[in-house]
Write a structure and sequence with these properties.
This protein is 40% helix and 21% strand. It is α/β, with parallel strands linked by helices. The protein has a 9-stranded mixed beta sheet with strand order 3-2-1-4-5-6-13-9-10, sandwiched between helices. It has a two-stranded antiparallel ribbon with strand order 7-8. The structure holds calcium ion.
Length: 349
């Protein structure tokens, strides 16, 4: 009897271990919502070349380029990767409540450093991007991680149209925001600045988002050393990424950086290998009205606000108000670990 028990227990332990391994080896379903964009292209190809991820769709949002150019770019990138099986859908054509701000200044005239990829063999999916997001989240409940790496317009439209997706999404890993100053101006990061109302909807939707901000992206640089490494390998994807990196590093050097900020790829890498970043739970609000701060992500480091109560002609601090965190905010990255991952996945492709 005792021997039987030992056997039974060891069998259960073995099965549990096997199950755990199976879970660990199952690729994570992700949807990349993108405004391609040099670093978007890098992020998409990192994802498509990583066995840890199963990219279920690319949805396109206006940002770095307009929606039409963005869809064209996304289709060409999918085609380059030989992935015409992947749904690539257009979405919103403008921000919720302001005019579109595009960024050819950083990304070149076509958003892809002026590099002309071959015409796409892939066709656009006819579904509206936010609807496709809703459909996939319901199809795979608790399994889909959204990776928005552009303005949050499409995600805001999806969550506004169908709030029931909120508890069904596994994670929302956003490239956007900053807790130490912006990259558009003193306060705002470009993706949040591009549609602050949408960002406010997404941060307040009731889920925990993971926020990979520009401040950390700017400490996660692809440098000439990495470029040389990429240039030594050849393949259609590697050659394309090397050209983008060369343009992007040159542009960044003109602005005083020693390399180019790997904003969007770092968000994708966070899903592949969470050890590339350090996160801290915080409550984050999005400023939509400030004179100098519209589009700023205002993070509370302490988890509380002072409760100031009116006493006669003045206020007094009457204890504190605890705040519920709504974001896992990225404080730091392991840049070399990330760049090794990025370059090894791109090389030879
Ligand atoms: Ca982007």
């Amino acid at each position: 009897m005792k021997r039987f028990m030992v056997l039974a227990v060891s069998l259960i332990v073995t099965l549990l271990f096997a199950c755990n391994n199976a879970v660990a080896n199952t690729p994570q379903r992700v949807i990349i919502d993108t405004d391609p964009g040099i670093d978007d292209a890098m992020a998409i190809l990192l994802a498509l070349n990583s066995p840890e991820l199963k990219v279920e769709a690319l949805t396109v949002v206006p940002g770095n380029v307009d929606g039409r150019q963005g869809l064209d770019n996304a289709l060409k990138i999918a085609s380059l990767a030989g992935r015409c099986d992947l749904p690539v859908a257009g979405g919103a054509q403008h921000p919720l409540n302001q005019k579109l701000v595009t960024a050819q200044y950083w990304h070149g005239k076509n958003g892809l450093a002026g590099v002309e990829l071959p015409a796409s063999r892939c066709k656009a999916d006819s579904r509206f991007g936010p609807d496709l997001i809703i459909e996939l989240v319901h199809k795979y409940p608790h399994q889909v991680t959204l990776i928005p790496v552009g303005p949050l317009t499409n995600i805001a439209l999806a969550v506004s149209k169908d709030p029931s997706i909120v508890p069904l999404v596994k994670d929302v890993v956003i490239m956007g925001g900053s807790i130490t100053g912006g990259n558009v101006n003193g306060a705002a990061e470009a993706n949040i600045y591009g549609d602050p109302e949408a960002a406010s909807i997404v941060f307040n939707a009731g889920w925990m988002v993971t926020m990979i901000g520009s401040d950390v992206g700017e400490r996660t640089l692809i440098t000439r050393k990495h470029l040389t490494d990429l240039q030594q390998a050849h393949g259609p994807q590697t050659d394309f990424i090397a050209k983008l990196a060369d343009f992007y590093i040159t542009r960044s050097e003109k602005s005083g950086y020693v390399g180019a900020a790997m904003y969007d790829p770092l968000a994708v890498a966070t899903v592949i290998d969470p050890a590339v970043v350090t996160l801290k739970d915080m409550h984050v609000d999005v400023e939509t009205r400030g004179e100098f701060t519209r589009g700023e992500t205002v993070a509370n480091r302490m988890g509380s606000d002072e409760n100031n109560v009116l006493h006669g002609d003045h206020f007094e601090i009457d204890g504190i108000i605890e705040l519920k965190p709504n974001a896992r905010v990225c404080l730091a990255s392991n840049a070399e670990r990330f760049l090794q991952l990025f370059i090894s996945r791109i090389k030879g492709k």
